[in-house]
Structures are given as C-alpha cells and as structure tokens.
Amino acid sequence: MMNGRVKRWKPNAKKAWQMFYVHAEAEELIPKKNISSKDGPHKRRKRASFVLWSAVALLCALSIALAALFLTRSSGAGERFMSWTHRFTEVFVSKLPPVGKLVSKTPSDEKISKKPSDGKISKKPSDVKISKTPSDGKISKTPSDEELVPKSLSVEMITVQSIENNEVMVLTLPDDSLVLLAEGCRLNYPSSFANDQRRIELKGDAFFEVIEARERPFIIETEIITIEVMGASFRIRADSESLFELAVRSGVVKVSFCGEAQGLFAEEGEQVNLMDDWLQKKQIEDDDSLSLSGSKLFFKDESLELVVRLVNECVPEALQLAVGDELLSKRVINVTLNLNNMEHIAEILCNALDLELTIEEDVIYLWSK
After folding, report:
1. How many C-beta atoms surround the C-beta of residue 184 within 10 A?
2. What domains, with CATH codes, occur in the chain?
3. Alpha-carbon gap, residue 178 to 249, rounded angstroms
4. What phi-psi label fits residue 269: left (phi over 0), alpha (psi between -120 and 50 degrees) or beta?
5. 300-346: per-residue pLDDT in tens?
6. Nearest residue to 208 (alpha-carbon basis) of 240, 241, 243, 250
7. DSSP letters along 168-216, please?
C-alpha cells in the first residue's frame, strides 16, 4: 500500500506544483515559466547523477594518490612506480607536436615591416641587420663585429720568459697593466684582450699592477690556482703544483682552485698560501713577500716615465730620479739597469737617449739637450 500511495502521490504533487506556478504567474508573483517534461524530477535526477559521478571521480583520484604515496615509501615498489612514471612521461611527450609549432613569437622578438610598394612582407629579427639595395634587389646581411675579423686572423698568443740570472723583466700588457717577471718566470698572453675578460697564463714568480676595469675582469691561470681581479697590485709565486703564494699590496684579489666558483678574497696587507691542498689566508708578516728578488731590471720598448718610477722604487738610496720635460717622459727605451747606484743609472739613461742631467739636492733631473 505504501508503494501505491507513493505512486499516486507523485502525480498529485506534480499537479500541485503546476497549480502553484499557474496561480503565482497569474498574480505576477514570479515570472512566467514554461513547464516541460525536462523540468522537475527529471532535471533533478540529472543533477544528482552529475554530483554522484563527480564524487566517484574524486574518490578515484584520492585512491590513486594514496596508492602512489604508499608505493613510493617502499623501496622496490617505489622504483617500479618511478620507472612506470618515467616511461609514461616519455611516451606522452613523444606524442606531442614539436615545440616550435606551439610557441608563437611575440612582436618584441621580431620586427615585421610591410612595404606598400611591392606588397611583400619581410621579417627582421632584432639581432640581424638586413639591407636591401635598390640596384639589384638582393638582400645582404650586414656582418657583426665578430664576423668582420677573418677566422684566419685569430688572436696571437705571446709567450715571454725571463731567463737571465738575477734579472727582472718589465712588461706592459695590451691593457696597459704592468708585469714584473722574476728569473725563470713564463707568461702567456694574447696580443689583444677580449671585450669581456683579460685572461693570461703564468708559471713562476711575478708582480702585477692591474689596470682597473670592472666590466673586464683580469684572470690569471696557474697549474691549479685561478686568480681574478678587477684592479689591484699583488705578487704571485706559482712555481709548481705544491707551491703557491699570493700577497696583496692594494685592491682585492679572488683566489680559487681551477674550475671552482668558490674562493678566498684577499685584501691589502693579506696573503694566501697553499698548505696541504688547502688555501689559507693570513696577514702579511714580512714586507719581502711583496718584492721580487733581482739585481737588474730589463726594459723593452718601455717609456722613460715608467723606467724612472720603477728605479726609484727598487733602488734604496736617498737620491731620486726625475724627468724634467713632460714630452721626454714619453720616449721609449730598451735598456738593462743594474740596481746598485743611482748616479750610474742616470748616466746610462743619458747615454741611451742623448740626455743631460742636473742634480738639485736629492733629485737627479734628466733633460733633453
């Protein structure tokens, strides 16, 4: 009997709802609505089915996630699960179209110009210059700065080695940085440095005065150590793989093992030593760590101004050299000087450049004749 009542109650309820809507529409309480077979219980069943299946899908997803979490926590099952995942990813990615077909270039990447005369569209990448001559109508590509240099004309590497006994060679690099090479020291450097860095190779004992250029770091490579500076003066001893010492007179120097990014930063008055495959930093204890051992200075195509400055720094005497004429200081000289007597050095310079000298108090002035 309950089933019969339910069966009879459903159409009565439907009719009641229809009568309610008709009365409400007649009284203009609600907007008019066409009652069709799609409304009412049928539509509610569809919504219930949608909600039910959504819940089932959510439960399935949660079950898969929990199963994956359980599998990854166990060693053997986790490896199998990860291998299945990688295999599925490879197969899925292989079915995808090429990336170039999916990516669309933005207007910032390319410049498109259309000429109304011929109606042709030419595509101009931002990093390539294209010029069209009206005479032949051919498109030519303007070469970049790197392409202007022929490949056959590569940068020449120069090797310099000081072989004379107890002699220090003075060398000016292409960027005007100064290098003093002790006996037995070998230096490799290019005839012109690159635009982004200044890189050389060193083996032996040398003193550097590096011109500051923050956009072009100065890099010195030894057998196992790399030194990087922006602008500083320092001494390096790198005779072998087990012997390395660096002392800083001015500026900041970065010292690291070759191929490693991390390193030590040594400042003025500090030195870095290699001890048992470890780089150690400490304060300079002896001033001799900054000076090279040698009784002679060898200058090749160096200015008189530089010669006078280095002689005054290396000769421990009260007398000092000075250039009386500014134009005279730019003259170039090739000479080897024994660092024993300042008056004897002045006479050698006068004979080499045909000069004359005068002595006033503690200064020897060099003049043009």
Report:
1. 14
2. 2-73 (no CATH), 110-148 (no CATH), 157-290 (2.60.120.1440), 296-368 (3.55.50.30)
3. 14
4. left
5. 999 999 999 999 988 887 889 999 888 899 999 999 999 888 999 99
6. 250
7. EEEEE-TTS-EEEE-TT-EEEEESS--SS-EEEEEEEEEEEEPPP-TTS
